[in-house]
Amino acid sequence: MPDSTATAATSEIEFLVRYAETDQMQVVYHANYLIWCEMGRTDLIGQFGTSYADIEKQGVALAVVDASLRYHAAARYGDRIRVRTTLADARSRSVTFDYLIENAETGAKLVSARTTLASINGEGKLVSMPPHLRRALESAIA
Amino acid sequence: MPDSTATAATSEIEFLVRYAETDQMQVVYHANYLIWCEMGRTDLIGQFGTSYADIEKQGVALAVVDASLRYHAAARYGDRIRVRTTLADARSRSVTFDYLIENAETGAKLVSARTTLASINGEGKLVSMPPHLRRALESAIA
Amino acid sequence: MPDSTATAATSEIEFLVRYAETDQMQVVYHANYLIWCEMGRTDLIGQFGTSYADIEKQGVALAVVDASLRYHAAARYGDRIRVRTTLADARSRSVTFDYLIENAETGAKLVSARTTLASINGEGKLVSMPPHLRRALESAIA
Amino acid sequence: MPDSTATAATSEIEFLVRYAETDQMQVVYHANYLIWCEMGRTDLIGQFGTSYADIEKQGVALAVVDASLRYHAAARYGDRIRVRTTLADARSRSVTFDYLIENAETGAKLVSARTTLASINGEGKLVSMPPHLRRALESAIA
User: What are the φ and ψ backbone dihedral angles of B21, each rounded to 5 degrees?
Assistant: First the structure.
């Protein structure tokens, strides 16, 4: 946590790889890293004094519009995983997160990823983010 | 198919096992068979002149309240799977389906399963099924 | 942990519901509870002084042969979940676990489940469990 | 299909969206499109006179090392999906595929994606692709 009053712009979560997440290559199936990224940004948004569940209750959803992943090494069943999520960019109607997924025991870099999410309403139209989320994001970026 | 005007009470669907569905035991992860069961009853309900998507648009959901599965043999990546879904019981507020999941090429029995679903509204309260679905189910059972 | 030398026969784990685990009914998709059961028994087996990953390295896999689930109430995105796993029965070539899945904040019972797993080798043949696992299971049952 | 003897470098597959693939935003969860991409390249590789399952039996796996996705519109439960997979590049130890995921009924573009896969052996080391696969890929690219 920074010693200033600024909102922290980084989250770290840890968890164990589930058997269900492996595939017959004996490693974690590549699509599952996107799920882990979503867990990371859920945690980061929670640090902004709101929760993603609350944002949705206000009729706004953050929909992924762009995702890119680079796979460096494989995660395996039982590995302890760390996901570091960083706020990369925030605009009135979109937000971009960076992710670094590591083996928490060895520190080995597994996947680096970036996703951009757009703020949409129930009809799928682009809308501005809820003001308190936007302020928190801008504060975190600053 | 019955020679009367009664709705058919059986569905058969076929599809290929996806890589994502395997686990490091080199076979399909056991939870995925429940997904295949759901595909089977979606198809069967579609034969009743309605679609499960339409039922939900009327504010009624069919929530699984009970499931049991017996695993006889393993499915593997690339296998062609056949799911035979049969209507086992229908009541005003619940419906029970039986499933037989086979390897479509060899005929080997993979999994037999049964699920019971309850008809609930948006608040999660038990409600009667939409009349046309109920009539179709009763006709199919008869 | 019991104060005797007997192995504990219960595990408790907690975690948050992932967005990916929900479906359009706004609740956790029913097949995912089987994944949570597997997390519970992974933890319980770990308490037996071995790990399921190690068991597989010895060429033995525990394959689910029977599963039953009763759904009492729905889990939602962001809920904190507790899975209590208990050893129900242990034989030379199979083991049965019971699961109680609850909302960790409210204590509400969500799902009760039971799975039986068979000990198989790389060719899918029934084999006796590794001796140390079998002893730990028998001790835990006693 | 080209009128020459060259292997076709495009695959088209169609299937229905599963309930399990939706999330509480009432649309397909974004990670699932990577699973659909994998189904597309499985089909395309199958057209090359081999199957991905056979490649793995030869001790070679194609591991995703890079993935990028652009989300244009949402898929919903029950939608018929079409995945068009194209071979974009082929080298001795890697291959790149492009994907266009559409609503098969409306033709609406849902997701465009690209993945690069590396050819690795059982120890995770980069190796050359099996000769017949490499020849097929080169022929398709030409």
Answer: -85, -10
Touching subunits of B (3+ CB pairs, under 8 Å) are A, C, D
Interface test with B, best of A18, A27, A29, A33 (most B CBs within 10 A): A29
Locate A98 and state its tokens.
């960076």
Long-range CB contacts for residues A120-124, cutoff 8 Å, separation at least 24: A120/A60, A120/A61, A120/A62, A120/A63, A121/A59, A121/A60, A121/A61, A122/A59, A122/A61, A124/A63, A124/D74
* pLDDT above 70: percentage of residues in chain D: 94
Mean pLDDT, residues A121-142 taken together:
89
In chain A, the residue whose alpha carbon lies closest to the alpha carbon of C20 is A35
Q: What is the pLDDT of residue A132?
A: 87
Which of C16, C51, C77 is facing A78, going by the closest CB pair? C51
Closest CA to D68 of A112, B21, C21, C69: A112
Strands A10-16 and A80-90: antiparallel
**Phi–psi pair at A118, nearest 5 degrees:** -105, 145
C128: pLDDT strictly greater than 50: yes
DSSP reduced 3-state for C34: helix
D23 is an active site residue: yes
ipTM score here? 0.93
Tens of pLDDT along C69-124? 999 999 999 999 999 999 999 999 999 999 999 999 999 999 999 999 999 998 88
pTM for this entry? 0.94
Average pLDDT for residues B85-100, to the nearest whole number?
96
Query: Active-site residues of B: which are they?
Result: 23
Position C2 scores a pLDDT of 40
Would you tell me how many other CB atoms lie within 10 Å of the CB of residue D8?
Answer: 12
